[in-house]
Amino acid sequence: MSGHNVNVCDIGDDVKEVLKKFRFQKHSTNSALILKVNREKQALEVDEELENIELEELQDILPSHQPRFIVYR
Length: 73
What we know:
By secondary structure, the protein is an alpha+beta fold.
């Protein structure tokens, strides 16, 4: 292995900021951050921010035919 990094998609500063805020905010209920890849821009973007949601509910609202990345706490 040569150790080269391969960029699949870009993660913009705006997405990094949303992730940082989500990670460090005080959650009294379960929250989720749903991210998706914009294929045209080859960039990760925020799809939805949800509060007070259980895993079962989250599974029901996610599209089965479109990949999503979930941050849940």
